[in-house]
């Protein structure tokens, strides 16, 4: 029996190229793959696999780089908590001077728990509940990003009943194609997000007459993992045009929230450049006397995290590398066909790179981390890192197949510490009740 000859879809970056492109990674001749100088095998020995590892220096460095690029623009960074909501990550973000963009009461309470001041928090989301609106108003957050006429009426009524005046911005839907995966495109007219561009001016004028709300400006967010500046430029130009029209009608407009969406390098694509992003913001809004905001998530934390896994076995003539990590841990490949580099933790490769499918043990074909990918072979018992999983990794994990949530370590200053223990398997059923009628 001979194995079918697999087809490689594109030229995949080699192990050496993946490591060389990531300043936090090195391969040591004795200790194998290092994250900020810390051997990842040592962490996996201690915690077992699957486990997550975050690099604190990488988060700090990237936040500083983005802050630097935006300097002089009267811009506040509101980190999109959804990308990675761990309290340690939120603390690093706060220490780096950023606020938070939250989309639920839970995220709001987490951000507050991490010490992020209420007046550094903005609340986005297409379906904020009355309870969440009350919580946000009670905390006194900086602004609510309103996504519909219906929500505007609700916020006005709740705020008025609480004797408050909420600062709001209207999230417009600029009907721009962000050129990214359909499931993470948010700024097209047929997406559920925001207020139709053509209806925004009238709604703004209406908002200005309502009790309990004070319209301060506009917001937009056109999608995620955006690599080209062209969609940003198009969306910002539409927003700037609307701001000018509103001001001409006598409306007060003081704020513009430019959203997030900056893309990172997963394979060999060039990441979105903070300088180019700043340039697009300056070109559209510079000189307009606005307080500007951004809501980056992925760009700040994506490259800073990885998922470590052990190889359970290689099967079908080494066609499939089966890991002990699965889609319940990292769902991005199953959901978005996303690329995550697969790199051995060992000091050297066990053989020449070969084309394989890297899969998890879950009973779904979608439980595939890499298809027809050129990877370094790793024997059963060896380990790999799935790279660039710091954003939308742990936060999207589930316990599907009764697989407990994996532990998390954070590396800093040449050492590491556990920031979340492995979930005990009993925790999976600890809240479940077997009703009496089954007796
Ligand atoms: N602001 C708003 C209103 C958003 O909806 C999002 C992301 C962000 C900011 C942050 O976007 P970022 O800078 O991280 O691209 N789970 C998907 C990504 C979903 C993004 C949802 N919204 C993934 O794994 O690719």
Please describe the structure with a list of short key phrases separated by commas or semicolons.
439 residues, binds ligand LLP, eight-stranded parallel barrel, Lyase, Ornithine Decarboxylase, Chain A, domain 1, 12 helices
* Beta-strand share of residues: 15-25%
CATH class of the largest domain: Alpha Beta
The CATH superfamily name of the largest domain is: Alanine racemase
Radius of gyration, rounded? 23 Å
Main sheet properties: 9 strands, mixed
Strand elements, count:
21
CATH-level-2 architecture of the largest domain: Alpha-Beta Barrel
Kindly identify the CATH topology of the largest domain.
TIM Barrel
Number of helices: 12
Our measurement of the CA-to-CA distance between the termini, rounded to an integer number of angstroms, reads 54 Å
Oligomeric form of this entry?
Answer: single chain
Bound molecules: ligand LLP
User: How confident is the prediction overall: mean pLDDT?
Assistant: 95
Overall 3D form: globular
Helix content: 25-40%
How many separate domains?
Answer: 2
Low-confidence stretches: none
Structural class: alpha/beta
SSE layout:
Blueprint: H1 15-20, E1 25-28, E2 32-35, E3 38-39, H2 40-47, E4 51-55, H3 56-70, E5 75-80, H4 87-95, E6 99-102, H5 105-113, E7 121-123, H6 130-139, E8 143-146, H7 149-161, E9 166-173, E10 195-196, H8 197-207, E11 213-219, H9 230-248, E12 255-257, H10 274-285, E13 291-294, H11 298-301, E14 305-315, E15 320-323, H12 332-336, E16 342-344, E17 354-359, E18 368-375, E19 383-386, E20 408-412, E21 415-420
Parallel strand pairs: 4-20, 5-6, 5-13, 6-7, 7-8, 8-9, 9-10, 9-11, 11-12, 12-13, 15-17
Antiparallel strand pairs: 1-2, 2-3, 4-14, 14-15, 14-19, 16-19, 17-18, 20-21
Helix pairs in contact: 3-10, 6-7, 9-10
